[in-house]
UniProtKB/TrEMBL annotation:
Annotated stretches, region: Disordered: 1-57
Record keywords, A-Z: Coiled coil
Biological source species: Streptomyces glomeratus
Protein name, entry field: M23 family metallopeptidase
Ranges in coiled-coil conformation: 172-213
SUPFAM superfamilies assigned to the protein according to its UniProt record, in alphabetical order: Duplicated hybrid motif
Length: 344
């Protein structure tokens, strides 16, 4: 690397007059005049590294500007001393606006008196914080972070509380709906049971009223063959009536009021009496030992129409009862009697 060429030495004579800056001294001799030449101010050759200036540009610029002004003032004084001319007045620029702008950028209070010491740690302190007595920006930042954290925790807690409240409300609503459904089901079951009980009572009342109008055909009996029993004894292959086994001569009564439509011998049925009711139902009383009524006779419930016997195709004395609705095919006498409120 090339070095700068040394400047030529200058002799100073004592006793002369020298002006430095704005002050004039007379205790030293006259100075020799120095005129720069091309050789004395030759540019510096070679490569020089210029250090990059970092942060604090405004403050350093102010410092460099001040140094430059001082150098200019010194040079002017030296030139004045060398040339003997009166000092030249140099006016400095007003840097207060630049300084205030820089302070405002970093948050420093520009309203403070000139020359007062203001620390840079107040950067970021708001007016409210300053009014509260806070001057430390770090403390303000910490307080704000803590406030934000507390606010976030409050929001989280509020959200959790709201979620818990919603879950509790949902659970309570589900429980209420379940209880309501259970109450409805219970009420429906109770209503159904009450209706069934009412129907049973009504049917019992109806049967009791019918029982006053109907009666069993005989007494002191034993049920032997029932409707539908299979056997070779019956021409159809199965039993078509209900047999009341009783001693010969036991009274046979009219089950309900009606008209005698047949009375006499009927082959395998022996002596038979047919009672036709007002609705057209025919009641056959078979295997009688004797008949007490005649065709066309009106009878009432409980009237004696004959006696138990063993006539026709039988194995012993009994009453063979058959029921023929509207004179048609035979049905189960047991079910028909029960439908009239009677229990054989």
């Amino acid at each position: 690397m090339a070095s700068n060429r040394p400047a030529e030495s200058t002799s100073f004579a004592p006793g002369g007059t020298q002006t430095i800056g704005f002050a004039s001294r007379t205790d030293e001799g006259p100075w020799g005049e120095w005129n720069p030449t091309e050789d004395s101010v030759r540019p510096v050759r070679g490569r020089h590294r210029v250090t990059r200036q970092r942060g604090g540009g405004l403050a350093r610029s102010s410092t460099v500007l001040g140094v430059g002004v001082m150098a200019a003032v010194g040079a002017g004084g030296m030139a004045t001393a060398q040339t003997g001319k009166p000092p030249v007045s140099i006016s400095l620029p007003d840097l207060s606006s630049v300084t205030d702008s820089a302070k405002s950028l970093i948050g420093e209070d520009t309203s403070a008196p000139k020359g007062s010491a203001t620390v840079l740690s107040t950067a970021g302190v708001s007016t409210a914080d300053a009014a509260a007595g806070t001057k430390d920006a770090g403390e303000v930042l910490r307080a704000r972070i803590m406030q934000q954290a507390e606010s976030q925790q409050d929001r989280i807690a509020a959200a959790a509380a709201q979620a818990a409240e919603d879950a509790a409300a949902k659970k309570a609503a589900a429980a209420a709906a379940k209880a309501q459904d259970a109450a409805r089901a219970k009420a429906a079951a109770e209503k159904k049971a009450a209706e069934a009980e009412a129907r049973q009572k009504a049917e019992a009342a109806r049967l009791a009223e019918l029982a006053k109008q109907y009666t069993l055909p005989t007494s002191s009996y034993t049920l032997t063959s029932r409707f539908g029993d299979a056997g070779a004894m019956w021409s159809s292959g199965y039993h078509t009536g209900l047999d009341f086994a009783a001693p010969t001569g036991t009274l046979i009564k009219a089950i309900h009021s009606g008209t005698i439509t047949q009375a006499g011998w009927a082959g395998s049925y022996g002596y038979r009496t047919v009672l036709t009711l007002d609705d057209g139902t025919e009641l056959w009383f078979c295997h009688q030992s004797s008949i007490s009524v005649t065709v066309g006779q009106k009878v009432a419930t409980g009237d004696v129409i004959g006696r138990v016997g063993a006539t026709g195709n039988v194995t012993g004395p009994h009453l063979h009862l058959e029921v023929h609705p509207n004179g048609g095919s035979a049905i189960d006498p047991m079910a028909w009697l029960q439908g009239k409120g009677l229990n054989p």
